[in-house]
Amino acid sequence: MKQIWLQDAIEECRKLCGGHGYLSSSGLPELFAVYVPACTYEGDNVVLLLQVARFLMKTVSQLGSGKKSVGTIAYMGRSEHLLQCRCEVERAEDWLKPNVILEAFEARAARMSVTCAKNLNNFPNQEEGFAQLATDLAEAAVAHVQLIIVSKFIEKLQQDIPGKGVKRQLEILFNVYALSLLHKHLGDFVASGCITPKQGALANEQLRLLYSQVRPNAIALVDAFNYTDHYLGSVLGRYDGNVYPKLYEEAWKDPLNETVVPDGYHEYIRPILKQHIRVARL
């Protein structure tokens, strides 16, 4: 999952840079070429998600056996509550409460897994069911993985974090991350019944407010990773911010710009252009 998110992030950065994002000097094409193959180095991500889904289906099948759910599936031990609970958000700021966010993600993950398990029981052959429901199973696995990340983020924020104002910034980033996931997968949350469309709209409202809080510190947060200009190798991601002078400098390094008129223009290109002009006039 990490590699897929990196791939999406690189592509998003490329689009936000406009045409400049295609330049080799932007550093983005090299990043894309390095990270995209990583999505399959350890196995195709869909195959891995389906393996997670099999584990979830096994967990659901054991819920009535008295076996305790532990680790990343501990929330399944409260499945009876999660299948019935309703989000109590009434105002946009209610989405800033970690327990509200966590329960919404737990309810979504549990309900999607239980629904898949019920649908699998309708097939006489379980393997045929896995084949037919592969899309739903993969989505249930994604919900489970996202819940793990959200829950671990909350656990970390409950600890003492050194540095003045650092914890506050991490809390804002957590809320942005969690609510952006909720926004992206709003259909899953609403369809599973854990939140209402109105509560989803309130989450989007709060997310917009959070963006305005992150924006003033965006550059400082990125610089905190301490990636040097040499490491990034990008004229667009320079520490000093002098993008356009550096773009102009890089452009002059292209062999085509070594002369005012490129070699071969008068011999090959100009005759073709003149020929087209004559044809157009006829």
From TrEMBL:
Q: Which SUPFAM superfamilies match?
A: Acyl-CoA dehydrogenase C-terminal domain-like (SSF47203)
Instruction: Write down the superkingdom of origin.
Output: Eukaryota
- What protein does this entry describe? Acyl-CoA oxidase C-terminal domain-containing protein
Q: Which Pfam families match?
A: ACOX (PF01756), ACOX_C_alpha1 (PF22924)
- An annotated GO BP: long-chain fatty acid metabolic process
> What are the Acyl-CoA oxidase C-terminal domain coordinates in residue numbering?
98-274
Family per record: Belongs to the acyl-CoA oxidase family.
Question: Domain Acyl-CoA oxidase C-alpha1 spans what residues?
Answer: 7-57
